[in-house]
Amino acid sequence: MRRRTEPASTTAVARSPHRAPSVLPRRGLRLRPASTLALVACAVALVGTGCGISPDAEPRDLAEDERIIAVAGVPVGADAEGADRIYLVGPGEDGLLRSVPREAVAGLTLMEILLLGPNEAEIETQFSTVIPSGTRLLQPARSRGSFLFLDVSSEISELTGDSLVQALAQVVYTATELDGIEAVQLTVDGESLSWPKANGETTTGALRTYDYPGLVRTAQPDYPGLPSGV
Fold first, then answer.
1. Does the pLDDT value for residue 45 go beyond 60?
2. What is the pTM of this model?
3. Which of 6, 32, 117, 132 could form a disulfide with 155 if both were Cys (CB 3.0 to 4.6 A apart)?
4. 3-state secondary structure at position 144
């Protein structure tokens, strides 16, 4: 009398969303149909739990640890890391600008990251920005040759005196960190304004780093003075 084979194991594997690894008996041993079915059932169970996340029967609020996973891909522009650099007002009474690391990713340009200002750690170490909170790009930054064109909201134009000069220096020095950029044409809501330079002159043209000399702290030490009698 021929024994009937159990087709259930084949059906169970076909319905699995993932192909389970085959279980081969050792040579010289024959598995009973019931044992074969048990092994296949275990393999399917392992595949089903391999992802670690089971579907919910209905919508629910995410737990705290699941929320961290859900937003892990969202960039944080103010993190102090990366190969790019922005310029902030450094600690100290001199008010000189200092560069800090940033990384422009996921659609955030370096200029947008500058407008975010210092992060919490930098604020604790007395870094700041003169660019008013709420200042934003009205159009995506675009370049033409060595010029970067920026159209920003009106908050920056409300600054006056040394504060405006410092804010412009932050913009210009950060922009020139971009490859090939040497000058910035800055407009407010599409309108050209007369911007001050560090020497007191004004211009509606492009702004360059040499328009704001002496406003950045460098890592280069001061040259020693010449000995007397030389």
1. no
2. 0.62
3. 132
4. strand
92 class by beta-carbon count within 10 Å (0-12 exposed, 13-18 middle, 19+ buried): exposed
Long-range contacts of 12-16 (CB under 8 A, 24+ apart): 12/40, 12/41, 12/44, 13/40, 13/43, 13/44, 16/44, 16/47, 16/48
Same domain, 135 and 201: yes
Provide the 10 A C-beta neighbour count for residue 117.
Answer: 22
Q: Are residues 201 and 94 in the same domain?
A: yes
**Neighbour-count burial for 139-152, b at 16+ CB within 10 Å, e otherwise:** eebeeeeeebbbbb
**32/139 same-domain check:** no
| CA dist., res. 208 & res. 76, Å (int) | 29
54 within domain boundaries: no
DSSP state of 104: -
Calpha distance 193→37 (Å, rounded): 80
186 domain-assigned: yes
Most confidently predicted of 35-44, 96-105, 129-138, 214-223: 129-138
Q: Which domain holds residue 148?
A: 84-211
Q: Does residue 143 carry a pLDDT above 90?
A: yes
Strands (E), the chain: 84-89, 97-102, 142-144, 147-152, 183-188, 191-192, 195-196, 202-203
Query: By mean pLDDT, which of 111-120, 179-188, 196-205, 216-225 is the weakest?
Result: 216-225
